[in-house]
């Protein structure tokens, strides 16, 4: 079964303590689709400009991503330039040029409308809801957003959240959206609005899964060198939802396993700028890192027994 992703395809200019790149392929739909393509067929709905070349297309096409929903418009492709200092959890935006993305109106084919699973990337909440309303047979729909939409389109965002199964945001956004400084309370409030699960991305500290009755957390995969954290969240979402789509039941046990695959995929993404590392990733590398992750996080059940009796 295929996964539908509606979001941005962009060019990025990025500077980090490890180096810089003036132009590389980016955007939420790009990062998500490349990651999810290791687990499932993926369809992309996005918009690009006249500067988007056949070479840029090939990055997704080589991974088997269906780009027939990639709309082309006169003008330039969405461009973002940012900088990371030594705190790689925080991106400093230097320039944002919406270009053709400013007038993006997602157009869904009959095949896209019949998708079983969909990811609504970081776009206007009104568009997210419009897309969700067209997915009448979807079993699982996830949504990502950002602080800007929380600030300027809160009511529209709440309406969009009501109609999805999973919300995927970072910890600062969870607190901002809920108005709760405590993350546990924030998660409970967001879940009360309709979603069955909330995933909170915590950058180098890992990620957490909240449902109505449980909590599950994983660390980030330890890396000695992090070149570029751009797109790590969307790459995580691609691994998470890609794995879920391959499972006969998308229950909580499957979601916990999917969290690991999401973290594994994100760990590869940050090793180089843009999409470079994930573009040449192999199944063997994914399996090995999953195995390493299992070893890192596994421990035996230890029944407690006090070693020294309490003195009477």
Structure description:
By secondary structure, this protein is of the alpha/beta class. It starts with a strand and ends in a 15-residue tail after the last helix. Strands 5-4-1-8-9-10-11-12-13 form a nine-stranded mixed sheet, sandwiched between helices. It has a four-stranded mixed sheet with strand order 3-2-6-7. It has twelve helices and 13 strands.
Proportion of beta-strand residues: 15-25%
Q: Describe the biggest sheet? A: 9 strands, mixed
Rg estimate, integer Å: 20 Å
Task: Name the helicity range.
Answer: 25-40%
| Strands in their spatial order, largest beta sheet | 5-4-1-8-9-10-11-12-13
Query: Which whole number gives the mean pLDDT?
Result: 94
The span between the termini is: 66 Å
Number of helices: 12
β-strand number: 13
Shape: globular
How would you spell out the order of helices and strands? EEEHEHEEEHEHEHHEHHEEEHHHH
Low-confidence spans: pLDDT under 50, at least 5 residues? none
Structural class by helix and strand composition: alpha/beta
State the gist of this model.
This protein has 312 residues and is α/β, with parallel strands linked by helices. The chain has helices at 28-36, 54-61, 110-113, 125-134, 147-152, 154-162, 171-178, 183-191, 232-245, 252-269, 276-279, 283-297, and strands at 2-6, 10-16, 19-26, 41-48, 66-72, 79-84, 91-97, 117-120, 140-144, 166-170, 197-201, 207-211, 215-218.
């Amino acid at each position: 079964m295929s996964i539908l992703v509606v979001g941005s395809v962009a060019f990025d200019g990025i500077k980090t303590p490890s180096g810089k790149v003036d132009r590389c392929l980016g955007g939420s739909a790009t990062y998500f689709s490349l990651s999810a393509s290791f687990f499932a067929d993926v369809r992309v709905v996005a918009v690009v400009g006249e500067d988007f070349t056949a070479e840029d297309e090939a990055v997704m096409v080589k991974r088997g991503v269906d780009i027939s929903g990639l709309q082309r418009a006169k003008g330039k492709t969405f461009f973002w330039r940012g900088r990371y200092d030594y705190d790689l959890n925080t991106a400093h935006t230097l320039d944002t040029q919406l270009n053709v993305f400013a007038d993006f109106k997602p157009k869904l084919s009959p095949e896209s409308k019949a998708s079983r699973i969909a990811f609504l990337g970081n776009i206007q909440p009104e568009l997210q809801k419009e897309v969700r309303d067209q997915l009448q047979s979807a079993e699982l729909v996830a949504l990502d957003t950002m602080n800007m939409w929380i600030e300027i389109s809160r009511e529209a965002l709440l309406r969009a959240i009501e109609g999805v199964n999973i919300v995927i945001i970072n910890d600062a956004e969870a607190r901002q959206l809920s108005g709760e400084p405590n993350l546990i309370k924030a998660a409970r409030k967001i879940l009360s609005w309709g979603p069955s699960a909330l995933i909170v991305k915590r950058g180098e500290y890992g990620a957490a899964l909240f449902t109505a009755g449980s909590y599950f957390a994983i660390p980030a995969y330890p890396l000695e060198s992090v070149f570029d954290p751009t797109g790590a969240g969307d790459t995580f979402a691609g691994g998470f939802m890609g794995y879920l789509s391959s499972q006969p039941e998308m229950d909580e046990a499957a979601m916990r396993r999917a969290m690991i695959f999401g973290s594994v995929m994100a760990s590869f993404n940050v090793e180089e700028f843009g999409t470079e590392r994930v573009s040449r990733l192999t199944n063997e590398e994914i399996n090995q890192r999953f195995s390493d992750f299992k070893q890192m996080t596994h421990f035996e059940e230890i029944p407690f027994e006090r070693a020294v009796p309490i003195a009477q």
